[in-house]
Design goal:
By secondary structure, the chain is an alpha/beta fold. 29% of the residues lie in helices and 21% in strands. The protein has a 6-stranded mixed β-sheet, with helices on both faces. Helix 3 packs parallel to helix 4. It is globular and about 65 Å long.
Length: 260
């Protein structure tokens, strides 16, 4: 079959479980990017099948749930949700997350930056935008051939996420005053949490949905600043739950005022 850049495809060898967009073709080697999952892979062109929208019900159901925002009493009270700064190495995923923030009526600023450059600039961005919630995302992967899951050097980009988190904690060391959500597909969850993240991927080293970190950020933005979050409930709102993202119990970032 004749494929071209931009086509949507699945991989026969993986049970056609993930939808990809073709981003480059070099002879028979094709580079793919997940449409809904934060994943970059290479594939032989002979392994591809054109995607024909035959199985989108599950994704549509997830998206419908993701866009459900809390019911707020707007008759008497007014609300000041937490501000989100989202730094992402992938412009497509970043744009999708910013659209999600906008539809959730939450202030956000997006910055597109390569993983290895994020640590160098993070304090400047924090000083400029002064967010309540910082999201640091991009592409990642665990390579079993390089070492154990506890070895940060066995991951594609986890070390950059860890360094960015540490520098953000130099700017603000309180987990309550600056909530950090970080990681990509298969990131070194434990090291990101130890570095200072409130939420991180991926406890089971699995792929995560493009919107999973943004869903966490919105839930924290719209949660009361005086109350501890329901951690299990918030994680369950993501595509893959506690297998994809974990975190610590903390308070929200939204102020509630009266009268409206």
């Amino acid at each position: 079959m004749n494929f071209k850049v931009g086509d949507l495809v699945t991989r026969n060898s993986h049970g056609n479980d993930i939808i990809f967009k073709i981003i480059s073709i070099d002879n028979n080697l094709v580079q793919l990017k997940g449409v809904n999952v934060r994943l970059l892979v290479d594939s032989d062109i002979t392994d591809l099948k054109a995607y024909d929208n035959e199985d989108i019900e599950q994704e549509e159901s997830f998206m419908k749930r993701a866009y459900q925002t809390p019911l707020l009493d707007r008759n008497d009270y007014f609300y000041l949700p937490g501000k989100i700064l989202h730094i992402d190495s992938d412009s497509d995923y970043l744009s999708r997350c910013l659209d999600y923030y906008d539809k959730s009526n939450v202030w956000s600023m997006g910055i597109n930056e390569r993983e290895e450059e994020i640590p160098n600039n993070i304090k400047e961005w924090l000083l400029r935008y002064k967010p309540n919630i910082l999201v640091i995302t991009g592409h990642d992967a665990y390579y079993k051939r390089k070492g154990a899951t506890s070895d940060i050097n066995a991951y594609k980009n986890s070390k950059y996420f860890v360094e960015a988190i540490k520098r953000a904690r130099e700017y603000e060391d309180s987990h309550e005053k600056l909530i950090i959500v970080s990681g990509g597909c298969g990131s070194c969850y434990e090291e990101l949490i130890k570095a200072g993240a409130n939420f991180a991927s991926s406890p089971k080293r699995i792929n995560i949905h493009a919107l999973d970190p943004a869903i966490i950020a919105v839930k924290m933005s719209l949660s009361d600043i005086n109350k501890n979050i329901d951690l299990k409930d918030i994680l369950s709102q993501t595509k893959y739950g506690k297998d994809g993202i974990g975190g610590i119990i903390t308070k929200g970032t939204m102020y509630v005022g009266y009268p409206r």
